[in-house]
Amino acid sequence: MPASEASPATAGEAVAEEPGDESAVGPADVDAGGAEAEAGVPRGWRGRYPRVARGVWWGVTVLALVLVVGALLLPNRMAALQMNRFTRIPGEAIIGAAVLLALPRRTRIAVAAGAGTLLGALTVLNLLDIGFLEYLGRDFNLVLDWGLLDDAQSYLADSMGGTVAALAAIGVVLLVVLVLGLMALATVRLGNILARHPRRSTQGTLIAGTAWIACSVLGLQYAGIPVASDRVANRVTSEVRQVRDTLRDEAEFAKVARSDTFGNTPPDQLVPDLRGKDMIFAFIESYGRSAVEDPIIAPGVDATLETRTAALAKAGFHAKSGWLTSATYGGSSWLGHSTTLSGLWVDNQQRYRTVMASDHLSLTKAFQKTGDWDTVGVMPGVQKAWPEAEFYGLDKVYNAFQMGYQGPKFSWSTMPDQYALEAFQKLEHGKERDKPLMSEIILTSSHQPWAPIPTMVGWDELGDGSVFDAIQEAGKKAPDVIADSTKSREEYGKSVQYSVTALTEWLERYGTDDTVLVFLGDHQPISRVSGQNASRDVPISIVAKDPKVLDKIAGWNWTDGLKPAHDAPVWKMSSFRDRFLTAYGSTPHPTTG
């Protein structure tokens, strides 16, 4: 059969010719339609529309080149998504071209498809890093973080509705499949194009390789970025190192968790200076340093802290405040809770699981261990089984469904903080008992996306929570706030004001001479609110009527009142447990790993 009568390949299709076959289909082949017509062969669309066919061929080829080179150069930081990052010479592309040129057709296609799929996976990983850094202030961990994707879907369902969450999940899956598939097809196409003209391809590869080496040796830069790029090699090396370090950390941290300064302390030597006090440890969601110092957020929050400090003082309460550096950022609140109460640095999910399964003494369990306190947890954010109660030493836990709330959800938060605190008062704190009460309370109204936000109502008007129906309906909608950084910051500030007000009004209303409140933030809000490169610091305050309680921590040099000074002491969150136990008379009796 004459070459002109061969069935033409469609534009973008992987070509079957072996390397060195200069008759392979290319842009010039679209003119073959004329020969087909003269031979009496019906012309294909490429013969009828040669210019269109040529344009499609070039368009698909350029798209494949852009996809592959773009993936090789794609950074894993939102701030780095700038043009100068994509004007570099990727060394991996040169090596890949050399390898593909040396392979026979079938092997070449298989290798190209595999390499393209891996490049697509790397692209997905880079996008995950961008998202995790935006929300959690760190990269995605290949070993530990897959479970957080399910948490993200649950958060989206609670905030935006189940339909939106389901559509988002489907969209993400389709996007991943599309990225993997397109990258594989693009790499195969470029490999086949290289193989059609091996001499020119080899020459071009040698020239590109020489240019890369020269730029690397000379340290040439464009717009402050090295022209010679080995980003993929460095990225893969970094991921391998992270996986290795993560696996090593599991074993090492398990040993650390078995060591405990107060692990063997007899019950009668734990917190003797707090005997008879009703202890409350409260965490305010996303209450970070930015709430107190950011120029947009701080004015309202600072005014609230000053107002509430004065109101508490009028009721006989006084406070001291400092800073703790949280083990987490932007989310994963349970890491902040466990770090504070365990005295261990719990900054990932594996460490959290290790701690929860250990016998390490939590600060709250120390009170249970004495036998002199009843212990209770108020967890409006918990909507399923919560075995962690055993680690925290809680005799009883009230979850989202056990506090009688019949009002509306406020985005992710199942109920307003004011209602949760009033339920705590009715169900536990307000009851007569033989022992004082130690409580752990997690307040959730300041959880992102900060829309709608509840407002304070009369404490006697709370009822079953239905009073919040109109407030929730009139509030801002989450989609209107999420997409706007300024609005998010403003609404975040309002949510912190609400949570602080609810907690301190509760204390003012129901606190006694023997009530001691310790409250703090679990982490900073996401970087879109707290700002790029924000610290991980969160405020912490201890409030009491009995002056002896605050006298015990006078040596901490904390700031008087609810607002910590900018230069107040900053401690790692993991140091708080031991400092607190020591300050209130606990005697160390260590266990070792």
Give me a quick take on this structure:
With 593 residues, the protein is of the alpha/beta class. The chain has helices spanning 33-38, 45-48, 50-73, 91-101, 105-136, 146-160, 162-196, 198-218, 231-258, 289-293, 298-314, 333-342, 349-356, 363-370, 417-429, 469-474, 478-482, 485-510, 527-530, 547-551, 576-583; strands at 89-90, 221-222, 225-226, 228-229, 278-284, 318-325, 374-378, 396-398, 437-443, 515-521, 537-544, 559-560, 570-572.
Plain-language structure description:
- It comes from Streptomyces antibioticus.
- Keywords: Membrane, Transmembrane, Transmembrane helix.
- The chain crosses the membrane at residues 55-74, 86-103, 110-133, 164-185, 206-225.
- This is CDP-alcohol phosphatidyltransferase.
- The chain has helices at residues 33-38, 45-48, 50-73, 91-101, 105-136, 146-160, 162-196, 198-218, 231-258, 289-293, 298-314, 333-342, 349-356, 363-370, 417-429, 469-474, 478-482, 485-510, 527-530, 547-551, 576-583; strands spanning 89-90, 221-222, 225-226, 228-229, 278-284, 318-325, 374-378, 396-398, 437-443, 515-521, 537-544, 559-560, 570-572.
- With 593 residues, the protein is an alpha/beta fold.
- The strands form 3 sheets. Strands 5, 6, 7, 8, 9, 10, 11, 12 and 13 form a 9-stranded mixed beta sheet that branches. Strands 1-4 form a two-stranded parallel sheet. It has a two-stranded antiparallel sheet with strand order 2-3.
- Helix 3 packs across helix 7.
- The longest helix is centred in the first third of the chain and has 35 residues, at 162-196.
